[in-house]
Design a protein that fits this description.
The complex is a heterodimer.
Chain A lengths: L1 H11 L3 H16 L6 H26 L8 H18 L3 H25 L4 H20 L10 E2 L8 E2 L4 E2 L1 H24 L1 H11 L1 H6 L4 H27 L1 E2 L1 H4 L2 H14 L6 H22 L7 H16 L4 H9 L8 H4 L34
Antiparallel strand pairs in A: 1-4, 2-3
Helix pairs in contact in A: 1-7, 3-7, 3-8, 3-10, 3-12, 3-13, 4-5, 4-10, 5-10, 7-8, 7-10, 8-10, 12-13, 13-14
Chain B lengths: L6 E10 L2 E11 L4 E5 L6 H9 L6 E6 L2 E2 L5 H7 L1 E3 L12 H9 L6 H14 L15 H14 L4 E5 L7 H18 L2 E5 L3 H7 L2 E6 L2 E6 L1 H6 L1 H8 L6
Helix pairs in contact in B: 3-4, 3-5, 4-5, 6-7
Classes of the chains: A mainly alpha, B alpha/beta.
Chain lengths: ~375, ~240
């Protein structure tokens, strides 16, 4: 019961203009297929897909501080599980998704247990996630039951019908499916963020020793973060399989895919609710726009997308290390925090005494700076 | 005393690569007491704290809290048992607000956000930090960070509060304010306090009993007046062959 109440409070607890904006955005997204052509629809599907996997990854890294550079593992495992069950046994994807979640949670639990039981953290944990994604890729290259390196293909049904049970048919169906996933990712993230798990995750992220001393079973909660993240990513994999209809280990488990997943939340705003969504929109629109522009100019430059991603990442790290969303949210008045918090952050950490000696121009902003001595009198 | 001690450390030892940081240390803290643990730098005070709080496991000895041996439990289990601690080197959750920091402690044993918020509110009020609740922890001054450490530990509603040099680096006026806050706290909630402190001004004002640790060994105990006159204690602080 309390869980449900908290879920409601996720929305009632945020500023009104924030809720209104969310409602408008959702309404626009629901109406969008009415006006979009097939190409723009596919771009929107891409945005929603990356928004969703970004959210899933963000729960683990943005909230709990556990860096995964191998999230393609869960996309791949989820995709192959549901696809194989469908193709070989005729299991509908909705049931296959449950199996996919199970497989991915099991894999995440194994990795998490290995890492957290033996105190592997930080960079080494990230390397471990890469290692698992890589050897799973190699394993699937030789896994004949699902086609090995030659790929695994789902029966394509060319029709404008929407077969929701088997997820076969028109792109509009996949658009709504992706939208549903993105909403799911948002709601799950918001719900976690608000409850005890969210507090514990962020405590672990900021200082694990202090979290332990404050009563956080850090092993249990890190496992939980990894499991939730993997479960959500598994659903992205199921979507991927039924949308694209073909799976190649070389592609789906590729480390490039893992990196692609994490770019949106990093650029949009790591650890924030809306950052992954915004980041996915910005990145996808930029890269598609660039493609279009190049196509219009009659040119094709291989690898231009990767260069664009690199530049975007570099710019974000240089000019907006917290991502686009925190800066934008403040400007739009969606920020729940005390207005003087960001300026107060200018005070050097650990500085003794009230606000030490703030830089001349910053004096009035903090509000807690002692009244300036009357200048001119001396 | 007929009542068993709330905390009973019996012959606890811990070495680091052959160096005996704490050696057969025993101390008792009774319900409602404020007890100080003092000693020169490197005496092993923080190590002893870490043994009690579960950050380190003792090599030998028992740590009995409320009749139960808690030696070797994890820090979160110790916290659940009812011991809250602060860190000498403050460890705020930098990207969370003051209220959120303290609410992390407030979630002990409950998933209810409202309960955690209420506990956090009481802890912040006890330390006079109401006005800071929406500030990011990373924006706090050192004295406020020290108070935040205490508030977070307090929000776990401990029966025993371990305070590791929460007055260090504070100005005398700030120290007095902190002492006053602890006095009120002990009076209002009846929480038992064991504190490590260098600031004798605070020790004299707060503690009913004092243990002195030197080279990992408890060399004296008694009232603050007793231990400050003890020749062994003076020797440990001033050196062995002090000129006459």
């Amino acid at each position: 019961m309390s869980a449900l109440r908290d879920l409601g409070a996720v929305f009632t607890g945020s500023p009104v203009r924030c809720r209104v904006a969310l409602g408008v955005l959702l309404a626009v997204l629901i109406a969008l297929p009415l006006v979009l052509d097939r190409y723009l629809l596919s771009v929107m599907i891409l945005i929603l897909y990356f928004a969703y996997v970004g959210q899933a990854w963000n729960i683990m890294m943005g909230l709990c501080g556990q860096l995964s550079l191998g999230h393609a593992l869960y996309v791949g495992l989820g995709a192959y599980t549901a696809a194989a069950l469908y193709q070989h046994f005729g299991v509908i994807p909705w049931v296959g998704a449950v199996a996919a979640v199970g497989v991915c949670v099991a894999a995440a639990s194994a990795i998490g247990w290995l890492a957290f039981r033996f105190g592997i953290s930080g960079t080494y944990f990230a390397l471990l996630t890469i290692a698992f994604a890589e050897f799973t890729r190699i394993g699937f290259d030789h896994f004949g039951w699902v086609g090995g390196s030659g790929g695994f293909f789902l029966k394509v049904v060319q029709s404008d019908r929407m077969d929701w049970v088997n997820l076969r048919g028109h792109p509009v169906m996949f658009y709504y499916l992706a939208l549903g996933l993105a909403v799911l990712g948002f709601v799950v993230s918001a719900w976690i963020l608000r409850g005890r798990a969210g507090f514990y995750f962020r405590a672990i992220r900021d200082n694990e020793d202090a979290a332990r001393a404050a009563g956080v079973d850090t092993f249990r909660y890190k496992m939980f973060a990894v499991q939730v993240s993997a479960a959500l990513t598994a659903l992205a994999g199921v979507f991927f399989a039924f949308y694209y209809n073909n799976l190649f280990p070389e592609q789906i488990f590729n480390i490039g895919r893992s990196i692609e997943i994490i770019l949106a939340p990093i650029i949009g705003g790591i650890g924030t609710l809306f950052g992954p969504i915004l980041g996915a929109a910005v990145l996808t629109l930029l890269s598609e726009g660039l493609n279009e522009a190049l196509a219009a100019a009659g040119r094709e430059i291989p690898g231009v997308k990767q260069i664009l991603y690199g530049v975007a990442l570099g710019l974000a790290i240089m000019f907006m290390p917290h991502g686009i969303w925190p800066a934008l949210a403040r400007r739009l008045g969606f920020d729940r925090r005390d207005a003087d918090a960001p300026t107060a952050r200018l005070v050097p950490p650990g500085g003794d005494g009230p606000a030490g000696a703030p830089p001349a121009g910053a004096a009035p902003a903090g509000g807690r700076v002692a009244a300036p001595r009357k200048a001119g009198d001396g | 005393m007929a009542e068993p001690p709330l905390l009973d450390v019996v012959d606890a030892s811990r070495s680091f690569r052959g160096l005996k940081a704490v050696s057969n240390a025993s101390l008792q803290v009774f319900r409602g007491e404020v007890v100080a643990l003092i000693g020169p730098n490197g005496a092993g005070k923080t190590t002893l704290f870490n043994l009690i709080a579960g950050a380190l496991a003792p090599d030998a000895g028992r740590i009995v809290f409320d009749g139960r041996d808690v030696a070797g439990l994890r820090p979160d289990q110790i916290c659940a048992a009812g011991i809250g601690r602060t860190f000498q080197i403050v460890k705020p959750f930098a990207d969370m607000t003051v209220l959120e920091n303290v609410m992390v402690g407030g979630f002990r044993g409950t998933g209810e956000r409202a309960v955690a918020a209420a506990r956090a509110g009481r802890a912040l009020a006890a330390l006079g930090m109401d006005g800071l609740r929406d500030r990011l922890a990373s924006s706090l001054t050192l004295p406020d960070r020290k108070r935040l450490e205490v508030a977070r530990a307090l929000a776990t509603e401990p029966r025993l509060l371990l305070l590791d040099e929460v007055m260090a680096g504070l100005r005398p006026s700030e120290t007095d304010r902190m002492v006053e806050a602890f006095r009120r706290l002990a009076g209002d909630t009846g929480v038992t306090i064991l504190l490590i402190e260098h600031v004798m001004r605070a020790v004299m004002a707060l503690a009913q009993r004092v243990y002195v640790l030197h080279h990992g060994v408890i060399i004296a105990s008694g009232t603050p007046q007793q231990v400050t006159r003890d020749p062994k204690v003076l020797e440990s602080y001033l050196g062995a062959e002090a000129p006459q």
